[in-house]
Write a structure and sequence with these properties.
Chain lengths: ~160, ~280
């Protein structure tokens, strides 16, 4: 074997030692960082899952589905089913209420007798998580019926609705 | 023991015999023959070490010896060439084994001396250091590769974590907004109960003992107001009050002022409007 100057051998050995120790320390530090990064990622993923579940629930089940027909038309049809003579349904302001849901204000004008008003009240009560009867006013008319005006808040399913 | 002895020179690096002859002779290596009744180099070395003070031309503490078997000389005896080299000569070189050439009766003999300090059987620290250095450098290369790989993995995880955090932040804002809307919705759901309409209409019918005529009905903020088309009788009013209604409008009847303090008390005002809430209606 070719003789190498002893100082060079020692220098190379020291260099190797320093490199191994330095890289070992760096690797240990990186292993810690990796563990921390994995923990962070798991925490963030759990948070995202929990928030998605929370948002998926939304405020409540939808009363109307915008995919099927215009929400005001759907509401008019349902009110007619309760015996209310609907003259006009207007959709007012809407507020996003979770995934693909909006809480919309509907103003309805029409004619109804006491029984129809009673059925309306029971129908809104039955759909309490999806609709809120904000106001109702009725004025008796000569034919024994009443002119009514009501404001109803209802949850509408609107795919692609802006997030809340 | 033969009496022949020669002085030889160290072998040059390229080691050809021709250069030995050309080089000036220096009295650094002493060679002598030794006949022993053994073939074992180990026993021969032991014998030389035992008689080093006799065989060596130099003080035993300053000399190193090397033994080479030459061959049988007589029955039962074998000739060994014993080389003696000053320790100082061997220490000049860093190698563990120093090869020198000596001459015995004109015959060239190659001796291998162990460097002082590197006793036979003891570890060769220089060689081990060399090996350790090579192993260390290899390990360093492996560690560097692992470090680069780990760094990339950390960067990848960090990027994924950042993306998840951004998404969580976005979803948190959505959830907070949804929570506000949900709270408002639930509060409205609790106060604006449509069931009060059904309850009130039923109670009005019960209190009047049959169909009741209303001129106006209104529901706002969870409170229902009903205006009767005729003033409520005392019995009706009492029954309504028992059912959670309150009279809201009192229409005083047109009557002359009392003539004297002895006159009877004025009649109770006619009640045409009542109100109730979901909490009161029963």
């Amino acid at each position: 074997m070719t003789a190498r100057p002893r100082a060079l051998s020692y220098a190379l050995a020291a260099l190797a030692l320093v490199a191994v120790v330095g890289l070992g320390a760096r690797l240990a530090s990186q292993a810690d960082d990796l563990g921390a990064a994995r923990d962070d990622l798991a925490g963030a993923a759990n948070q995202v899952t929990a928030l998605r579940a929370q948002l998926a629930a939304g405020v409540g089940p939808p009363l109307l589905d915008a995919k099927l027909a215009v929400p005001s038309d759907q509401l008019a049809q349902r009110l007619r089913g309760l015996g209310i003579g609907v003259r006009e349904v207007r959709q007012g302001a809407a507020t996003a209420a979770g995934r693909n849901l909006v809480a919309a204000r509907f103003t309805v004008e029409g004619q109804a007798d006491a029984a129809a008003i009673d059925r309306l009240a029971l129908w809104v009560t039955a759909n309490g998580r999806s609709a809120i009867l904000e106001t109702l006013s009725g004025t008796a008319t000569a034919d024994g019926k009443s002119d009514i005006k009501l404001e109803l808040d209802a949850l509408v399913h609107e795919p692609g609705a802006a997030p809340s | 023991m033969p009496d022949t002895a020669d002085f030889v020179q160290p072998i040059p690096p390229d080691g050809p015999a021709a250069s030995i002859a050309a080089a000036p002779v220096r009295d650094e290596i002493f060679v002598r023959a030794l006949d022993l009744p053994t073939l074992s180099l180990k026993q021969a070395r032991a014998a030389v070490l035992q008689q080093l003070d006799i065989l060596s031309p130099l003080p035993p503490a300053e000399v190193a010896s090397s033994v080479v078997l030459l061959g049988p000389v007589e029955e039962g005896l074998n000739r060994f060439a014993v080389g003696f080299a000053p320790r100082a000569l061997l220490e000049r070189d860093g190698e563990r084994i120093v090869t020198l050439i000596g001459r015995l009766d004109g015959e060239v003999i190659v001796f291998r001396f162990e460097r002082p300090g590197a006793a036979p059987g003891k570890p060769d620290w220089a060689w081990r250091l060399e090996l350790a250095t090579i192993a260390g450098l290899c390990l360093a290369i492996v560690l560097a590769g692992a470090s680069v790989r780990l760094g990339r993995e950390i960067d990848r995880l960090q990027a994924r974590t950042d993306a998840a955090n951004t998404q969580a932040q976005h979803l948190s804002a959505e959830a907070a907004s949804l929570a506000r809307i949900g709270a408002a919705w639930r509060a409205a759901e609790a106060t604006r109960q449509a069931g009060v309409v059904d309850c009130a209409l039923g109670d009005l019918a019960k209190a009047t003992g049959g169909p009741v005529g209303l001129t106006r009905l209104s529901l706002a903020d969870g409170q229902l107001r009903a205006r009767l088309n005729a003033p409520a009788t005392d019995a009706t009013l009492t029954a309504l009050q028992a059912m959670g209604f309150r009279a809201t409008t009192a229409v005083a009847p047109v009557a002359p002022p009392p003539a004297s303090s002895a006159d009877p008390a004025p009649p109770a005002p006619a009640v045409r409007e009542v109100q109730t809430t979901a909490a009161d209606c029963r």
